[in-house]
Design goal:
Radius of gyration: 62 Å
Structural class: mainly alpha
Number of strands: 0
Order of helices and strands: HHHHHH
Helix content: 55-70%
Largest sheet: none
Shape: elongated
Length: about 325
């Protein structure tokens, strides 16, 4: 019995406490390359799944053995990444992680290996079954062709014997024709009662039902998408109308505010002009009163000065002329 550690180099802490049947399939590469399991040829970048153009997609497979068991994406089996993994540094890291061997082959766990064996067995059985059905169809076709050739030859013999009016030949031809008809019916019935034909009809019925369900789902999905798009379109129209109405109301309100502001400015301007005119009239009235007062004062002063001048002139004339003389200013 060989002694080795069941844990790969980079393992998770919970793997150590898992049951044994769950721990062993996680192991891909065992130290010293003991019990390494490969799928296909094990080379990097090669797909292990069988591709045969004679096999159709079978929906009548309860165990789903004809489908690839590895549902997850495996980058080591991707043909597009073959050149990437050809690097020596990448190969060294893959070998340290326990994903490949020293020969550069990808290893797999026991669970995937068992599923791959079941898959290959199912594919082999399906290929042999397809060959058997093909051989049966060819045998039936060959029998039908031979029967048709015999019927054609019999018709030609009937035409030849009809001129001679041979009753025995006519009876033999009718018996042979009935035998050919029975052979054709028996071949057709045998073909229809074969398991392949029944399974083919059942598969066709299941395929039609599946196709009908998929078609109904597709129609419902398209109808729901169309309804959703219509609802989105109506919602967008309503939103656009609301936005337009809101924008229009905002513009109307802004225009009304501008008009009110203009009227207020005009009113204030008129009020200021009126106040300015009232102030100007008041100032003009005050200035007129002051001018009138100054004028009156100036006139009174002027009269007073004229009176004084006259008096002075009178006194001077009296001095020059005596009382007997006549004063020219009196």
């Amino acid at each position: 019995m060989c002694q080795f550690n069941c844990m790969p180099p980079y393992y998770l802490p919970k793997w150590r406490y898992m049951p044994l049947d769950n721990k062993l399939p996680m192991l891909r590469c065992i130290p010293k390359e003991v019990l390494n399991l490969y799928i296909g040829n094990g080379s990097i970048g090669s797909s292990p799944w069988v591709k045969n153009k004679h096999l159709d997609f079978n929906l009548w497979d309860p165990l789903m053995l004809q489908q690839p068991c590895d549902k997850e994406y495996d980058s080591l089996r991707d043909p597009c990444l073959k050149c990437y993994f050809a690097n020596a540094h990448h190969l060294r890291q893959l070998y340290k992680q326990g994903l490949i061997t020293r020969d550069g082959k990808t290893v797999t766990c026991l669970r995937e290996y068992n599923k791959y064996r079941a898959y290959m067995h199912a594919m082999n059985v399906e290929i042999l079954r397809a060959f058997q059905v093909q051989n049966e169809c060819e045998d039936t076709k060959r029998l039908v062709i031979a029967t048709m050739i015999k019927a054609k030859a019999l018709a030609m013999d009937d035409e030849k014997n009809q001129c001679g009016n041979n009753t025995l030949s006519r009876r033999y031809s009718e018996t042979l024709r009935q035998e050919i008809k029975n052979v054709c019916e028996r071949a057709e019935n045998e073909f229809e009662t074969t398991p392949f034909f029944r399974e083919y009809c059942e598969g066709e019925r299941q395929s039609l039902l599946k196709f009908r369900q998929i078609l109904l789902k597709d129609i419902n999905k398209k109808a729901l998408l169309r309804l959703h798009k219509l609802q989105q379109y109506e919602y967008s129209l309503i939103q656009n109308w609301k936005d337009w109405q809101k924008h229009t109301n905002a513009q109307v309100q802004e225009r009304a505010d501008d008009l009110v502001r203009e009227h207020v400015l005009k009113y204030e301007r008129c009020k200021n002009i009126k106040e300015y005119m009232d102030l100007s009239l008041y100032r003009q009235g005050k200035i007129g009163d002051v001018v009138q007062k100054n004028r009156k004062l100036h006139e009174s002063k002027l009269k007073e000065s004229m009176r004084r001048v006259r008096q002075r002139v009178c006194l001077k004339s009296q001095r020059q002329y005596p009382l007997s003389a006549t004063c020219p200013y009196s």
